[in-house]
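Checklist before submission:
- one chain only
- standard amino acids only
- sequence pasted in full

Submission:
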Amino acid sequence: MPVTPELLHRYYQGNCTDEEKQLVTRWLESQHWEDIAAGAETLKEKEIKNEGWQALEPKLTIPLRRTFWWKIGPIAALLLLLLGYFYFSNPARQPKTSIAQNKKGTPAPITHQILTAQRGEQKTFYLSDGTQVLLNAESELRIPSKFEGINREVTLSGEGYFKVAKDPAHPFIIQTSSSRVKVLGTVFNLKAYPGERVRVSVEEGKVQFSSVNKDLDPLILTAQQQACLDRTLQRERFQRPAWWETKLAFEDTPLGEIIPVLERKFDVRIELSKPELSSLTFKGAYDQPSLPVILDDLSYVLKFHYKLQNRSVTIY
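Returned file contents:
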């Protein structure tokens, strides 16, 4: 069945059978349509799309006299109407700029990655803002793929030595399970292992050390100052950590706090068979120490015995 002006007229009025509708639809998608569409490239596409059929005639780049317009008849007008409708409803002819604008207007989701140092390891990382981070053994730092917004926020579990790139307009914030450290640009060490006291030691600059407990007032720490968080925020005598220099230092440190340090550094498991030994304190400094040397010193000073087998130590 040929596509005639009468058929198109019925199609326009909605009086076609299903078979005739399919025929007209196939015709619109055929080469016949492409021949007609080729002559429509002179139309101002955006205006036709936005203003509708009533704006079609005055927006043609080729002037049409109104007398001619009426002479072409309703069928020819229908053809042009169908042309405009199909031209802009065809996905292949949709303006690509709108897609690009949508993609540009919708912010891409920020991804995160986890930086880790396993037991017995110490690793150095550089963040996208230029900040340098040294992670101690058994530590994790969660960082965004890039810093956006006012703050540069990361999350730490474990211990890290930070050299924060200066950017006063974008404070650097470190979240832990129980604390928050805010800096503008400084050098400091943050120790925040699960189940242990959180400790901040500032070498350069200034930090704000606060608890997730809003009832505790934050502390401002400057160079050569130190504080810890247990149940309260407390200032301590400054002791420069030096674990990244393969050194260990204990300043009247309880054995109960020394044990996890040795477990992480030497990747061993230490069992304390006498709980009363946990509160005994020890003072000592080591440069590139071995585990047996430290255990010998501890056992001599604190009066205990130990057994070292493979990666297991028993203190009794």
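Reviewer check: The first strand starts at residue 112 and ends at 117.
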